[in-house]
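Module 6 notes. Inverse folding takes a fixed backbone as the condition and produces residue identities as the prediction. Think of it as a translation problem where the source language is geometry and the target language is the twenty amino acids. Below is one complete input and output pair. Work through it position by position during the lab.
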């Protein structure tokens, strides 16, 4: 079975991403044999180097060295470009950075984001990944409720639910979206968003080894959430 390096929410933290990829063995255009990086989405918004993160991840995917899920922030970019979402929640930083550093590249990233899956089964019957979580009943589902939960971790029109504590599925689920101070399994679920952009860390799970790897943020890049 192939090995996977599952990486939590990057949010434009390019320096930390490069340090983490180096630690995991992804250096320049090379990757560790028999392994693939899996990004859980939210590559952009709020952080200082969104175009650089987007370009790095797109390069890894193009070479077959990585796969990437769509996070709610990629989804919000697509909705904004379609005129259905305001320039808010950190999207303004992404748009401004692309305009300043990589004119014309924003639409290229949007095309990339449009083709990203919302969930992946990496190890049949044993491991699912989704940006914000995935209850058992929606694993493998393309229903609107499944799409909504994979992006936002809550059913449409309701308040956030603590789904992980109630999860009773037989497969592990690794996700991001909701920043956590610590990396810890809750039953068979693990949140890899350790709030790098808020001064926390950028974290990864090496699977099937079970090793957790984190790079502390150089500083707090974004106040608020």
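Target side of the pair, the amino acids:
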């Amino acid at each position: 079975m192939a090995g996977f390096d599952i990486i939590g929410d990057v949010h434009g933290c390019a320096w930390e991403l490069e340090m983490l990829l180096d630690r995991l063995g992804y250096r320049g255009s090379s990757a560790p044999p028999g392994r693939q990086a899996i990004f859980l989405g939210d590559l952009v918004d709020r952080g200082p180097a969104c175009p650089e993160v987007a370009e790095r991840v797109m390069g890894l995917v193009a070479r077959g060295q990585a796969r990437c899920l769509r996070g709610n922030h990629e989804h919000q970019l697509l909705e904004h470009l379609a005129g259905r979402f305001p320039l808010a929640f950190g999207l303004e930083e992404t748009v401004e950075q692309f305009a300043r550093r990589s004119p014309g590249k924003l639409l290229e990233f949007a095309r990339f984001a449009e083709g990203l899956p919302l969930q992946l089964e990496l190890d049949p019957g044993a491991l699912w990944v989704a940006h914000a979580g995935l209850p058992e009943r929606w694993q493998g589902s393309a229903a609107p409720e499944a799409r909504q939960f994979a992006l936002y971790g809550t059913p449409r029109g309701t308040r956030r639910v603590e789904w992980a504590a109630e999860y009773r599925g037989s497969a592990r689920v690794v996700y991001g979206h909701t920043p956590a101070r610590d990396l810890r399994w809750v039953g068979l679920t693990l949140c890899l968003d350790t709030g790098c952009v808020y001064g926390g860390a950028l974290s990864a799970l090496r699977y099937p080894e079970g090793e957790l790897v984190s790079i502390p943020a150089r500083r707090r890049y974004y106040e608020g959430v």
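Reference fact for the lab report: The CA atoms of residues 78 and 114 lie 7 Å apart.
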